[in-house]
Amino acid sequence: MDAEIVYPPYGNAIDVVLTENGKALEELGPITRCVLTLGATVLDSDLNPGVFTWPVAGIREDVAVEALRISLGAEGLAPGLYQGQLVSYDSAHPAGLLWTKSLPIVVEAVT
To answer: From start to end of the chain, where are the E strands?
Structure first.
């Protein structure tokens, strides 16, 4: 998977298509909360509502799907490579559903 690049403080967003068994989820509406962990930084949609937006229009294999948008430009992350851990919550998964432990995100300093 190619790394997503973030240029703080700009509004570059990362659109993540959540897949199960190789197939994009048809509907993200049931998701009630998302948590992204980047090193020691934990971003929670309940506490950081501006970071996460869902559903948004996404594309997977030339097919329109729903995606989760992650906006990190205003979060004050230090430059570097992060392996993000993404967890979503819904009524069927009140303890959370781990989607990935290795979402590669590069934060680049802009001078």
So the answer is: 4-6, 13-16, 19-20, 23-24, 33-38, 41-44, 52-60, 63-71, 80-90, 93-107
